[in-house]
Amino acid sequence: MALSPRLDLRQSQSLVITPQLQQAIKLLQLSSIELADYITQELESNPLLEQDDTGEAGALAESAGNADDRSEDGLSVVDTVDGQDESPMDVEADVADNDAGLADSGETSFDTNSANDWGAGGHGELPDLERTLADTPDLHSHLVQQLNLAVADPADRFIGMYLIDHLDESGYLRLDLADAASQLGVALPRIEAVLATAQKFDPPGIFARDLKECLKLQLIDRNRFDPAMEAFVANIELLAARDLRKLKDVCGVSNEDLQDMIAEVRALDPKPALKFEHITTGTVVPDVIMSQQPDGGWRVELNSDTLPRVLVNRTYIADIGKAAKKADKQFLAERLQSANWLVKALHQRAETILKVATELVKQQDAFFRLGVTHLRPLILRDIAEAIEMHESTVSRVTTNKYMASPRGIFELKYFFTQGLPSSAGAEAHSAEAVRHRIKVMIDAETADDILSDDKIVDVLRENGVEVARRTVAKYRDSLNIPSSVQRRRDKSLALGLR
After folding, report:
1. 308 vs 62: CA distance, rounded Å
2. Final residue of a domain: which of 352, 384, 416?
3. How would residue 277 be classed by pLDDT, with cut points 50, 70 and 90?
């Protein structure tokens, strides 16, 4: 059969992420400080954008209602991308070459906090290649990874996140534990227990509350904290005063031993966090503010101080539009298109943050009222389904966004933890909480009553937790707990040695 060239028409659909949607996604995941820097750059590059210095609060920040209220005006600007729906915003602007297309009387205010009609698409800047590369883990990420491995209980993990966020740039914990316990609604010994676990993290010396404790933690890590060294650290001020004779007497060591101890202490790192290059030192500014209303409900509102307000200067277009050449008009039309799109994306970003935060407050109502022990198991899908958005949109919104509450300032991601289903339609249980319950049950075993995995499943089911036997085995292995047969042998051997 001979082959011959021919022309065919084929119709197909494909998902295209336009530069405008790239910009919208970028804005959604920026923190308030990063957003302010971005807006400054846009104001410098676009002559049609101006900063709104009127100081008036935005409509979104003013109109935020109770936690029971939720806006139902559709998907986020990036939700159409995440959900792979057809994007209604990928449209071409009507670039007018006539004078009427550019001359518009007066200056129209586009407050990014207030509701306004969605304008035509514009130009968004793609990120630099360097900015798409993965950064090396910073101190916060490094500690969170260790926390997730070392702490299973969701309440204790929440406390650990709280402690991490209160480290200074040197790695010291500048926090009154009694105040933290009161704020989180837990007993002080529980805070101290989590801190003791966190002080074993890498780098050694992290979470110390003063220099002496920092040196002590590092010496313990090196297995060098003997009584002589303990006395040396407790009287470290004598070394600073060069009173070596008294320091030697306090430690009860010889001159040679004292010199070795001095050299060993000087080799320690008094500021263990400084070796991490990517430490965020900026002040946390809450994006959302919640407060309790007289009727007992919660009021959730945006922090107007973090919401940039910009104006599109149409007077500038009207002044130069008539005398402008065709190329200049084209440039102005493109800048107007870009300005309109930026205003639209900023407004939708603020609206989406408010919607997600409001739903989070509803879901974690017990935590805000009763404390961290009542933290509810929650995953991104729960919020996404409740507000009819895509999970990746919720993930972007909750990253680097903070909420000021009566219990303190927390990142929105604090409130997510994996859950296991309950029987009889009861509320889900945290997977970490189930691990903790398994450990408690096994710790309470006696030699005559060793719990098999099947027996643990039955006990958990009686308490309303539906979990498979293989899941219990997996959780037991993750806790480094041997099988029931091995535990029975170990306890019998221990009894025989007594």
Report:
1. 15
2. 416
3. low
